[in-house]
Design a protein that fits this description.
Number of domains of chain A: 2
CATH topology of the largest domain in chain A: Ribonuclease iii, N-terminal Endonuclease Domain, Chain A
Distance between the termini of chain A: 53 Å
Number of helices of chain A: 11
Largest sheet of chain A: 3 strands, antiparallel
Oligomer: homodimer
Mean pLDDT of chain A: 88
Structural class of chain A: mainly alpha
CATH architecture of the largest domain in chain A: Orthogonal Bundle
Strand content of chain A: 5-15%
CATH class of the largest domain in chain A: Mainly Alpha
Order of helices and strands of chain A: HHHHHHHHHHEEEH
Helix content of chain A: 55-70%
Largest interface: A-B, 20 and 20 residues
Amino acid sequence: MKTVRRFYNYFLHPEREFVRRLRRLLGFTPAYLNVFKLAFQHKSNNGDTAKEDKPYGGQNNERLEFLGDAVLGTIVAEYLYKKYPLGDEGFLTKMRSKIVKRNSLNTIGDNMGLDELLSTYNNVRIAKSMLGNAVEALVGAIYVERGYKKTTQFVVRQMLRNYVDIEHLETFDDNYKSQLLEHCQKNGSKVDYSVVKRFKQDKRDRFKVAVNVDGRRVAVGEDFNKKSAEQIASKRALVDMGIKVSR
Amino acid sequence: MKTVRRFYNYFLHPEREFVRRLRRLLGFTPAYLNVFKLAFQHKSNNGDTAKEDKPYGGQNNERLEFLGDAVLGTIVAEYLYKKYPLGDEGFLTKMRSKIVKRNSLNTIGDNMGLDELLSTYNNVRIAKSMLGNAVEALVGAIYVERGYKKTTQFVVRQMLRNYVDIEHLETFDDNYKSQLLEHCQKNGSKVDYSVVKRFKQDKRDRFKVAVNVDGRRVAVGEDFNKKSAEQIASKRALVDMGIKVSR
């Protein structure tokens, strides 16, 4: 039955162009095309159209994202568990969060060319932050169609090996806030953060955060969430204080 | 090969009593007994014995816990994804965290009788908090031996159906802090928390936290971490203020 569906989707389906693009990305022809279409259906789309025009009764990719996020986390956990037989829990946890954190997934989605597929099914501008969600939703869709084992193959071969530099991540520390705190603690300096501006941009909250060392403002950072703005400000502070080399 | 190992473990192994207890718990005889022994090896044990006496070169169940935590999270995510085809991401996320949070896992482990198995391989007193970790490590061990599908069967049949009341969890809200904040916000009252005492008990940090409504101390709570102490204090405050019925 799946074979017949795949044959139909590849050769006869009205959207066979989309099917073929998916095939190039996935390495197989999807049998359940609707699930994959849903994976690229961002929630921002739901508001635009009348209920009856919305595919799948107003559904979007968030449920698939929920499932894919879990599946991806487990696949990466198992991959690391096997790759580092002597790595302790702390190391494995850190490595995993470096791989599956929002920013990394956004970059992976970008490299996979998901923006192109997203724009097929969304009338909004594709923000970088939508790419990571699409990666998770895509993993969810593959899981729904092919189960755990095949999804593992896809994630390891198409995502981890192509787009993740594991060896680099081992030594790479991108928690600039903790680096700054550590450095200042050693030198007896006090660090604090303050929100200096909070405003709306593209209908979303945006934060401008300042980092102060011993009461003196060293740097500012701006982003759509406070944590990330603090990281940006901390990175700039580290460069400014000559602790980190900018690149 | 696995069959031979199982036969040997069940009938001839010097620790066949442990094997049989595991069989009652798991529904199958483990072939790789060492993995299951490791699952019950708590880290607090490592300090007691000389390096050469430690099983598996000083390993403990933390790596299996890391793996099992991820696997369990995915199995529960999939279970909820299928059970609630109309549940949105927020609902699914909340339900999952109610099931896999520390306290629930401790209770599940208790009901499964893991304390007995833990005490076989640990010379320390079995704290309730060790049970949840053991549940995760056990799921990790099952996954290592039997793969994803069989682990799903075990988790759904032996854990979720027996020990988790999903319907109850749908309406159950145990975030007392957010309940208290919501109630006070409605009434224009201000809530804040303060640590009134921090001390050592059983070599661990213990916190005594007070909750104040409009500057007046309403209740206190005590636990090994601040968040949990705040929850306990909030629950007491809710009862004290007549918002919640104690039971």
